[in-house]
């Protein structure tokens, strides 16, 4: 099938992205390697520990997937996965996998720490491979923009790992918003106040003064990848707590924000925000050791989005709360004294409100007003299988990069605001810069470690 003839220019990117996304041809079965069994997707898993193990299991369960290659910097993770797929070729370096398996694979999933998402996914797309990438799409705003443009130009199938977006709950919420059931939207409040997350994923910092010997099963150089080299220390980076560090992760809002934003973004058809500002944990803000190295254990971010046909006015305030910051009590009280969902979004409309608890069905408020409302008749989808089916010629994925890329950009603008708290940052999406604060622009794209530059970026 035809490939898209023209790439989307940076200047016209945001205005034309929806049209471009619709115009992208599906490579479908024509994209499948000639050596593949009929109607089989030859797939490589990059990152098979932690969330990668979960992703691997989901791809394994699709009858039309053949796992042919596995990659992980941790030999223990790799061995465990190899025992499940003894015929799959194994690699510790994703660069070698993409080079040696170029003619043997059709698709990859990228399930590694945030700081290496772009380098892997971009190279895979440049090689013409379909890509399933965990959230957030990338570590930096500039990476997201480049990866989104590349995916549109290449015409490959893509899916962001917001796996709840394919569920009945989120898809129903999108439909309710689009149908105008609660009228025009006046305000949106999003939150993720999962208590266990503070202990498990949000270290107070600072970094330990001395490193320790790297365990023999871990390739620390490959794990560090594009980030600055740091001395290895146990229990604070690998396998899971890397999210707390600015070098490697994007904080709680960058990670879980993609889940909570998704239905709101799609339902309202949001575009790039006009401004963003953040309030943060006071102890973090006052500590130079912490605020230059880790993410805070709580933040409150406010975006001002341009209004549209779904909003009451020409500006929509959208607020995010996590850690020690919670939505206003008057908003929580709308749930009639019931425990307010720790992870959720709520939209306040001119005719009512829509509560979207994470992983659950949406709730229309006040409940007595909407007791006769029939929820949309939608089914639950497997997000991973939907990606596979699209690669094999099926319908478009739920969270393709042309749609989820701009959303991730907006979320990551919030992480920039966190670094410069209490400062309203005015955003120019066309030129991809903050117009009122030059210092903020340096956080849009980091400098990669020597030897890890990405060609074309």
From TrEMBL:
InterPro entries, alphabetized:
Gfo/Idh/MocA-like_OxRdtase_N, Gfo/Idh/MocA_oxidrdct_glycsds, Gfo/Idh/MocA_OxRdtase_bact_C, NAD(P)-bd_dom_sf, TAT_signal
**Native source organism of the sequence:** Arenibacter arenosicollis
What taxonomic classification does the UniProt entry list for its organism? Bacteria, Pseudomonadati, Bacteroidota, Flavobacteriia, Flavobacteriales
Cross-referenced PANTHER family = BCDNA.GH03377, NADH-DEPENDENT DEHYDROGENASE-RELATED
Q: What is this protein called?
A: Gfo/Idh/MocA family oxidoreductase
Q: Which PROSITE patterns match?
A: TAT
Q: Boundaries of each Gfo/Idh/MocA-like oxidoreductase N-terminal domain copy?
A: 42-161
Which Gene3D superfamilies does this one have? Dihydrodipicolinate Reductase, domain 2, NAD(P)-binding Rossmann-like Domain
Looking at the record, the residues that make up the Gfo/Idh/MocA-like oxidoreductase bacterial type C-terminal domain are 211-278
**Pfam families per the UniProt record, alphabetical:** GFO_IDH_MocA, GFO_IDH_MocA_C2
């Amino acid at each position: 099938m035809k490939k898209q003839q023209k790439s989307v220019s940076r200047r016209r990117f945001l205005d034309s992205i929806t049209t471009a996304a619709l115009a992208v041809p599906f490579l479908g079965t024509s994209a499948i390697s000639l050596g593949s069994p009929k109607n089989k997707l030859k797939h490589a898993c990059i990152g098979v520990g932690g969330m990668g193990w979960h992703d691997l299991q989901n791809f394994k369960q699709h009858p039309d997937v053949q796992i042919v290659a596995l990659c992980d910097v941790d030999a223990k993770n790799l061995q465990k996965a190899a025992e499940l797929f003894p015929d799959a070729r194994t690699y510790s370096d994703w660069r070698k996998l993409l080079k040696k398996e170029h003619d043997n694979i059709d698709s990859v999933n990228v399930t590694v720490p945030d700081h290496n998402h772009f380098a892997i996914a971009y190279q895979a797309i440049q090689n013409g491979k379909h890509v399933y990438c965990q959230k957030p799409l990338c570590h930096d705003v500039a990476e997201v923009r480049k990866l989104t443009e590349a995916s549109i130009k290449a015409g490959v199938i893509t899916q962001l790992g917001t796996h709840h977006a394919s569920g009945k709950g989120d898809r129903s919420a999108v439909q309710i918003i689009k149908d105008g059931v609660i009228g025009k939207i006046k305000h949106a409040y999003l939150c993720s106040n999962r208590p266990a997350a503070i202990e498990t994923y949000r270290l107070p910092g600072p970094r330990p003064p001395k490193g320790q010997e790297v365990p023999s099963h871990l390739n620390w150089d490959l794990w560090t990848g594009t980030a600055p080299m740091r001395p290895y220390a146990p229990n604070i980076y690998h396998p899971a707590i890397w999210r707390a560090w600015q070098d490697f992760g994007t904080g709680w809002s960058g990670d879980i924000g993609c889940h909570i934003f998704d239905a709101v973004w799609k339902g309202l058809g949001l575009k790039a925000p006009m401004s963003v500002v953040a309030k943060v944990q006071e102890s973090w803000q006052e500590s130079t050791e912490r605020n230059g190295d880790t993410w805070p254990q709580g933040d409150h971010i406010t975006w001002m989005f341009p209004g549209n046909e779904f909003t009451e006015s020409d500006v929509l305030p959208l607020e995010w709360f996590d850690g020690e910051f919670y939505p206003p009590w008057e908003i929580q009280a709308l749930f009639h004294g019931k425990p307010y969902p720790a992870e959720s979004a709520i939209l306040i409309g001119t005719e009512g409100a829509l509560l979207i608890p994470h992983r659950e069905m949406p709730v229309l408020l006040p409940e007595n007003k909407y007791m006769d409302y029939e929820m949309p008749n939608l089914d639950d989808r497997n997000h991973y299988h939907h990606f596979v089916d699209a690669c094999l010629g099926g319908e478009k994925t739920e969270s393709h990069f042309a749609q989820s890329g701009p959303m991730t950009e907006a979320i990551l603008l919030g992480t920039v605001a966190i670094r410069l708290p209490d400062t309203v940052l005015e955003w120019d999406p066309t030129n991809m810069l903050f117009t009122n604060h030059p210092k903020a622009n340096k956080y849009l794209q980091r400098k990669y470690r020597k030897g890890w530059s990405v060609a074309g970026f």
